[in-house]
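fyi for ur records
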Amino acid sequence: MKKIACLFVNVIMPENNDIYSEDDFFTPNALNSFKKWNPDIDVHFISNKNFNEYCDLLQITESYEDVGLFRILVVKKLMEIQKYEKIIILGIDTITCDKLNELIDNNYDDIICSSGGFHTIETEYFKTPIVNFNDNGKIYTDIPNINGDLICFNNVKSIDTLYNTTLNFWTSQREQGGLMYCYLNQKELGLKVSIVDYPYYKTPFLYNIRSKGVVGGYCMIRGNVLNGRKGKVISDTYPTSLFYIKNDKLFTIDHKQVKLFHFCEGLGCKKIHKELGLDEELTYEEQVNEMKTMWFNKETIDFLKKQCNCSF
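which gave:
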């Protein structure tokens, strides 16, 4: 059996808000749910409290102000020093809803990614394409967009390549942009890079932001569903409120199993207190309240509490 680890990082960098420093909702749920479904995988959780301890353990001497780059470096060191053969990175605003077999059993791809939202991203180095799929005469359109809060690495070479690519082609997308570059240029880089839940029309399971029910971040606000960030109102029913349970598994309304749920609302960038002012988006406090009270129906909350060891 392979030696596998999962890495969670909640480190407050100098330029970021400290809203996660006293977090008693997201991080515990992320850790507890992953351990519940994947008890045979080692879990490493790095916070400001044990940051120096991990740096000493992993012989990290570089100084980093970017959490994404730090996570990649930690994965490399864990593989080199502690001899892990596969390492998964998960964000602290995720909930694991089943055993992650599609990552655990995939020893073929160098990097296994997960889907981002249904929108294109363009930088000076790449542009995510719009791809059409013909399935028995029916055309499905999708975008191979990647979100960096779930990544699985199968070897050190892939980590080195992602790290160097991220630095060499640095953009506001950071390591997420590095992943996109690696995916779009994998042949030239000598890598095998896959997206575990892409294309959407074909995948039976979801691992990231698309588990929210085919909406992106900043699209469920005060009871309205927007057509993209700051877009027009298209519904007054949150897709997440339509989730259902079948055979102790969580599904979206279009019958995709949610194996990993990602809140994905840019919480680290939100304003903290109402007195700081409001725009059309939510403050951190409002957002968390909506997630706890409006996003899910009772059936889903019961599942998350009973089957995933979460608290609401």
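Confidence is low (pLDDT under 50) at residues 273-278. thats all i got for now
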